[in-house]
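Q: what sequence does this backbone want?
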């Protein structure tokens, strides 16, 4: 895919969704951090069903830490891998209180020091909360980047590097959200909805489903 195609691709995504947003429900940076940790290998819809009850009783690092691992599990038990996630969240909250006065840090190094936070989660926080032009490569973005020819790569880090190089700067801040949403609702894993795709003309996928 050449520069002209990439420019047109993102112009089309923008025209159809001028203000893309993450689909996790949150009201504070801390709530988004917890929701993002919970969303690993889980759906945003499933996380959004669980977090309102949790955040009603505990939505700060201190109050979640005070809740404790066993009580936290009660609120998140409908989410996959909840045992490991509860353990990580309590550890993360302990460090947030001890080192950051309960606040979510605004740099990658300190974010990735938190239990349960890897590069993808850090990128989500840096982009959504702090307005940094990062791209969190999930399964949707990995699939789209390779399928369309936008940013081919054999692993998520290669794809992220290619995206940061290939996405026109004016679209970089919102690129993460556009690509995730496009992969979630249009460029799905099986039988992509190419007939209703707004970037079909730019896409280089050879097996387009146009029926």
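A:
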């Amino acid at each position: 895919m050449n520069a002209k195609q990439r420019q047109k691709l993102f112009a089309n995504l923008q025209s159809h969704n001028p203000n893309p947003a993450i689909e996790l429900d949150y009201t504070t940076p801390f709530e988004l951090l917890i929701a993002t940790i919970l969303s690993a290998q889980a759906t945003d819809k499933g996380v959004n069903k669980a977090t309102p009850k949790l955040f009603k009783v505990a939505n700060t690092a201190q109050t979640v830490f005070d809740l404790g691992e066993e009580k936290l599990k009660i609120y998140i038990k409908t989410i996959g891998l909840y045992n490991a996630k509860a353990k990580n969240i309590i550890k993360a909250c302990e460090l947030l209180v001890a080192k950051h006065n309960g606040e979510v840090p605004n740099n990658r190094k300190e974010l990735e020091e938190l239990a349960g936070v890897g590069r993808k989660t850090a990128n989500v926080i840096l982009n959504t909360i702090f307005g940094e032009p990062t791209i969190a490569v999930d399964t949707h973005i990995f699939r789209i980047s390779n399928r369309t020819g936008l940013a081919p790569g054999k692993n998520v880090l290669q794809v992220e590097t290619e995206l940061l190089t290939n996405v026109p700067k004016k679209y970089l801040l919102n690129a993460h959200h556009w690509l995730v949403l496009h992969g979630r609702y249009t460029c799905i894993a099986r039988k992509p909805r190419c007939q209703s795709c707004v970037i079909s003309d730019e896409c280089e996928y050879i097996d387009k489903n146009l029926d």
